[in-house]
Specification:
The complex is a heterodimer. By secondary structure, chain A is mainly alpha-helical. Helices cover 53% and strands 0% of the residues of chain A. By secondary structure, chain B is α+β, with helices and mostly antiparallel strands. Chain B has two domains: 484 residues, Hydantoin permease, CATH 1.10.4160; 85 residues, no CATH class. The longest helix of chain B has 38 residues. Classes of the chains: A mainly alpha, B alpha+beta. At the A-B interface, α1 of A face α1, α3, α10 and α13 of B.
């Protein structure tokens, strides 16, 4: 492959791979929030917002 | 109102389902073709810029809008949008978020069924003794109803119905079923993709043959990745990049809202959105660029790729290329490739069923089972015309209006709603609520100004094309039923003329001067070459060609007489079906509104 093409490919794919791995790693390692931060009970909320 | 709402089993399951929703056939087929046609390596710069200023903001908007709507018990766009602003109009704009999904699912499942069928044909060795033109012909036979490639009558319809049944069955199992498919399908898709990508990267000149002695996979990669900086100044390249980002992320459809509506109120959406977005980009930029183009260039040469790059390569070319790997590897590669496309397809089509199911459950207390099977029925009714009249252009008509225009219109309107009507301050607070990452403040201003402007530009730039479509300017045979057939254009401008090369009772073959791009390896640049191309028209009984060999034919010249039912007729039926679907969903939204008003749950 030509150097110019190789640099572009490695740079673009490298950025995407690093970002994808970084964010997915954060997803896997960040601990879930403890209740009551997570409002499961709100899933049945029937009231609408005040307009 | 609905009973206890479902929720995602795990965060990883949610992200894989969202990424699966975004990853589709376009990641492997549309992206590399767009890159080849728009400056090779330089395309990636506008592409990544558009991902940051349009893709990520739209993901933030749709994830946060969905979670916001879910908090008020709404799991589809009509009442998610209605919750965000005063005025009755927004719930009808939200109809796009159900309409697009049913319409797209109806023809998308047809493509998905091709991948199922091609896995089957790869395993039984249908392609093993076929040459390239026979494999291309196999696809045309497969999509021609009445012809059978396996002896099974109406094979294409049977595979389509099977595919739709599979989707409906999984949907009837609810979010858990979707999550399970995503958890199995996405890792398999990535595994199959990596195996094929390694082959694309290492093929080099191994695929060169007597017929294609200059074939070289690295020529394909060089062309794809060598920057052509002059193309950066071309607005068309930027428009193509914006379009690709838009379609690859499945934004503007209503599926992201629907999936996000099942997230708990204070759970993160910011990190989830970028994680799912980058997973899609990994599949597209890394795997998508390393399979079709290098493998095709490795066996058929770069010139062939330049002239034939398109969607059809997946079904008309790849099976032939796999045959060059030997009998056993050809079966494996066929299963990997079509299996990969199948998983890319099914994780997307499953997402398309959820907005309708969510709406019917929220508004009319329908069970998941009832919602899933009614979705399957609607998709079948809408989809059968695309199967029966695929060759007549109904499929393309659906793809254009439901799979392209509808998305841009809805994304533009929802962005205006989020930024300017709901209000950017409330919107920004919604994005950051429970966020596991700190979203840079610059995105607040991008969402407020850059994203709407960019989407508005994409929409305005598409208007002339829409007008041409409505006026049927893509054909010279604009009557539904006619007593004569007129020659179509030989080029996009309708300037070139052709000469009748041969004529029989059932066909006319015309020769004309066409241009193609060829790669000059010594000068390392593309050159335009003129060559003699052919256009063939086929005729049925009762239709008679009226031209003679050697006769010069201009576009719109009468070339045959008899009874003709033109494609415009079938396309119009397709458009009317789409309009009927939109009106039907609008009617359901109106009925829901009346029901809500009776129950005292209406705020405007």
């Amino acid at each position: 492959m030509k150097t110019e093409a190789l640099i572009t490919m490695v740079a673009a794919q490298g950025i995407v791979i690093i970002m994808a791995l970084y964010f997915f790693y954060k997803v896997l390692t960040i601990k879930p929030k403890e209740e009551p931060d997570s409002y499961r009970e709100n899933d049945d909320e029937t009231d609408r917002q005040e307009s | 109102m609905s009973g206890k709402a479902e929720s995602w089993g795990s965060r990883v399951g949610l992200i894989l389902a969202m990424a699966g929703n975004a990853v589709g056939l376009g990641n492997f087929l549309r992206f590399p073709v767009q890159a080849v046609q728009n400056g090779g390596g330089a395309f990636i710069i506008p592409y990544l810029v558009c991902f940051v200023v349009m893709g990520i903001p739209l993901l933030f908007i749709e994830w946060s809008t969905g979670r916001y709507g879910g908090r008020y018990g709404n799991h589809s766009t009509p009442y998610i949008l209605d919750t965000m602003a005063k005025g009755r109009i927004w719930k009808y704009i939200g109809v796009f978020g159900i309409f697009t999904n049913i319409a797209v699912a109806s023809y998308y499942c047809y493509i998905e069924s091709w991948t199922m069928s091609y896995v089957y044909h790869s395993i039984i060795g249908t392609f093993s003794d076929m040459n390239q033109s026979q494999i291309a012909g196999f696809f045309n036979d497969y999509t021609t109803i009445g012809k059978s490639t396996t002896g099974i009558p109406f094979e294409a319809i049977i595979f389509y119905v099977l595919c739709l049944l599979l989707n409906t069955y999984i949907l009837s199992k609810g979010l858990k079923g979707i999550e399970k498919v995503a958890k199995i399908g996405m890792p398999l898709l990535i595994l199959f993709g990596v195996i094929l990508a390694v082959r694309g990267l290492t093929l080099g000149t191994d695929g060169a043959s007597d017929m294609f002695p200059d074939a070289n996979a690295w020529d394909g990669l060089n062309f794809l990745w060598t920057p052509q900086y002059d193309s950066l100044a071309n607005p068309k390249v930027w428009l193509a990049a914006a379009g690709q980002i838009f379609f690859t992320l499945s934004v503007g459809m209503g599926t992201v809202h629907c999936y996000a509506a099942y997230i708990r109120s204070k759970d993160d959406i910011a990190l989830n959105a970028v994680s799912a977005g980058f997973m899609n980009e990994f599949v597209e930029v890394v795997l998508g660029s390393l399979i079709v183009i290098p493998i095709a260039a490795g066996y058929l040469g770069l010139d062939w790729v330049l002239q034939n790059a398109g969607f059809g390569m997946a079904f008309q070319t790849m099976p032939y290329l796999f045959q060059q790997w030997g009998e056993v590897l050809a079966v494996c590669a066929g299963v990997f490739w079509f299996g990969l496309l199948f998983f890319a397809g099914i994780t997307s089509s499953l997402a398309m069923g959820t907005p309708w199911m969510g709406f019917m459950r929220d508004e009319f207390n329908w069970s998941g089972n009832k919602g899933a099977w009614s979705f399957g029925l609607l998709a079948l009714i809408m989809g059968l015309p695309t199967v029966f009249f695929f060759q007549e252009g109904v499929f393309d008509e659906y793809d254009y209006w439901a799979g392209t225009v509808s998305l841009v219109v809805f994304a533009f309107l929802e962005t205006i709603l989020f930024s300017w009507i709901f209000g950017i301050n409330k919107g920004w607070a919604e994005i950051n609520m429970g966020a596991d990452i700190k979203v840079p403040i610059v995105f607040k201003y991008i969402i407020l100004i850059v994203t709407p402007l960019l989407l508005g530009w994409v929409l305005v730039a598409s208007l002339p094309d829409m007008a041409d479509k409505i006026a049927n300017k893509d054909t010279n045979n604009r009557e539904w039923f006619a007593d004569a057939y007129y020659a179509e254009n030989f080029d996009s401008e309708g300037i070139k003329t052709g000469v009748v090369d041969s004529v029989a009772t059932d066909f006319i073959k015309m020769a004309y001067q066409n241009e193609k791009q060829v790669y000059n390896k010594q000068l390392d640049k593309l050159e335009t070459q003129v060559f003699t191309d052919y256009k063939t028209y086929g005729f049925k009984k009762g239709q008679n060609p009226i031209v003679a060999v050697g006769q010069t034919i201009k576009p719109n010249d009468k070339i045959a007489e008899g009874k003709f039912t033109n494609h415009v007729f079938y396309k119009t039926i397709g458009r009317l079906l789409l309009v009927a679907l939109f009106l039907f969903i609008s009617l359901m939204v109106y009925k829901a509104f009346i029901k809500r008003r009776k129950e005292g749950r209406v705020h405007s």
